[in-house]
Structures are given as structure tokens and as C-alpha cells.
Design the sequence.
């Protein structure tokens, strides 16, 4: 019985070593890239600029953590104007002029297979 336990623990240790050595496909690089974007608010519209040399594909624009726009493709070097009323929460409620934009983020897919992320905060 003692031999079986020793054998089992040895196989388990070798399996764990092999998994740790080869099981991870992480190449040491992050799968998220910080985007070089800029966002400003005019009082009724957001001006979004892609300052990178690559496109932001299938972008999700998020306002104050609750209001979203999905599916945007923001081309490299381009500037986009998006009206605040285009942003809606999960229930379909629109962002209104009575609300103050405080946080803005962009999540997107990149052609490299990685994800892009941008975040801004206003007072």
C-alpha cells in the first residue's frame, strides 16, 4: 500500500511539473494593451480620438460605468463625435444632460489578437 501511495504522489508531482512548465501559453506579455486615445466632452457630445497607428475593432465605449455603446470600429488616427444621448444602460435608459460624465473607458479588440483599454476620469 505504501508503494502505491509513493507511486501516486510521484506521478502527481511529475504531472504538476509538466503542467507548470508547458501548460501555460503565457509568453510573459500582457494580453491587454494601453490605448493612446483621448476623449473630451463638449457639453452634449464626446470627441474620441484614436491616436494609435492601429484600429480599435468592436469597441465598447462605457460612460460612468453604467452607459454603453458597443460595436464601434475606431480607425487609426481618426476622430469621432458621439452624442451623449447615444449611450444607454442595460434597461435602455439614455444618458441625459442632467447627468455629469465622470468616467469614460474604451475596451476593444486589436488585430494582434490582444485587447485594448483606455480610461479617463473627470471631476
Sequence:
Amino acid at each position: 500500500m505504501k508503494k502505491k501511495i509513493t507511486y501516486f504522489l510521484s506521478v502527481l508531482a511529475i504531472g504538476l511539473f509538466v503542467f507548470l512548465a508547458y501548460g501555460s501559453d503565457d509568453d510573459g506579455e500582457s494580453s491587454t494593451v494601453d490605448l493612446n486615445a483621448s476623449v473630451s466632452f463638449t457639453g452634449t457630445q464626446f470627441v474620441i480620438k484614436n491616436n494609435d497607428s492601429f484600429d480599435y475593432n468592436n469597441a465598447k465605449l462605457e460612460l460612468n460605468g453604467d452607459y454603453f455603446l458597443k460595436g464601434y470600429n475606431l480607425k487609426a488616427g481618426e476622430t469621432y463625435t458621439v452624442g451623449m444621448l447615444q449611450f444607454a444602460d442595460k434597461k435602455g435608459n439614455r444618458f441625459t444632460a442632467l447627468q455629469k460624465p465622470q468616467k469614460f473607458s474604451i475596451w476593444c479588440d486589436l488585430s494582434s489578437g490582444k485587447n485594448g483599454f483606455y480610461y479617463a476620469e473627470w471631476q
User: Anything to note?
Assistant: The first helix runs from residue 2 to 22. The chain has one helix and eight strands. The mean pLDDT is 86. The longest strand covers residues 56-63.
